[in-house]
Write a structure and sequence with these properties.
The chain is of the alpha+beta class. The chain is built from three helices and four strands, in the order E-H-E-H-E-E-H. It is 21% helix and 22% strand. Strand 3 and strand 4 (109-118) form a beta hairpin. The longest helix has 15 residues, at 68-82. InterPro entries: CHP04076 (IPR023811).
Length: 143
């Protein structure tokens, strides 16, 4: 089985009151690096190891993952997905998915991180079809 990781920008937020109070440039506004709807696809193959190249060439339509701070915040989840691991067992409603955000508290970017399973044999395809990756509320880890 091979694995890919899809990172989708769900939202960009901005908190002007926090920027006004704490930033050197209180008018900095929303994050200039990301836009809602952008999709980045990571893979680890002999030809393309986009994880270790820090997201180079992962933006759909061409381009790189644009922010080191955001990469630092989500890279552990991307790595887990690329290894075939459970990104968030007992937390999200699908253990192959995680909702995370960057570290900028005044203009955070919200990401959906998904493990994409790519079966290489009919046996893997059959096994994958039989799996239940759902996490349910009665089993949820709530901190």
């Amino acid at each position: 089985m091979q694995y890919k990781c899809k990172v989708t920008v769900l939202k960009t937020k901005v908190f002007p009151d926090l920027q006004e109070k704490y930033l050197a440039n209180p008018q900095s506004g929303p994050c200039p690096c990301f836009e809602a709807g952008q999709v980045f696809t990571f893979e680890r193959t002999p030809e393309n190891d986009s994880f270790y190249r820090l997201g180079k060439g992962t933006l759909a339509g061409g381009g790189d993952f644009p922010c080191g701070e955001a990469w630092d915040a989500i890279s552990r989840y991307v790595y887990t997905a690329l290894q075939g691991g459970s990104i968030m067992h007992r937390w999200t409603n699908d253990e192959r998915m995680m909702i995370a955000c960057c570290n900028d508290g005044t203009r955070p970017v919200i990401f959906k991180i998904e493990r994409i399973d790519v079966p290489e044999t009919p046996e893997e395809e059959s096994w994958l079809a039989s799996q239940d990756f759902a996490n349910r509320a009665d089993e949820a880890y709530t901190g």
